[in-house]
Design a protein that fits this description.
- This protein is mainly beta.
- It has one helix at residues 20-26; strands at 2-5, 10-13, 18-19, 34-38, 41-42, 48-49, 54-59.
- The protein has one domain (2-59): Ubiquitin-like (UB roll), CATH 3.10.20.30.
- The chain has 1 helix and 7 strands, in the order βββαββββ.
- The protein starts with a strand and ends in a 7-residue tail after the last strand.
Length: 66
């Protein structure tokens, strides 16, 4: 599976057929620090991603009203 990471932008290949949280653990990424996107959908940590899929990891940004 292809994983597209942002900030800085890079792509890595990892084994698919696993839950998102297992992929994040392998990449040493804290699940709460990213949004996981497959196509146009957000993906939860328990969903399985196949070998032929691509997911994108976008950092969570927070901000508020002043």
């Amino acid at each position: 599976m292809k994983v597209v990471l942002r900030n800085p932008r890079r792509e890595v290949e990892v084994a698919g057929g696993r839950r998102v949280k297992d992929v994040l653990a392998e990449l040493q990424i804290i699940a709460e620090s990213v949004l996981v996107i497959r196509g146009d959908e957000l993906v939860t940590a328990d969903q399985v991603v196949r070998d032929d899929e691509t997911i994108e990891l976008r950092p969570v940004m927070s901000g508020g009203l002043r």
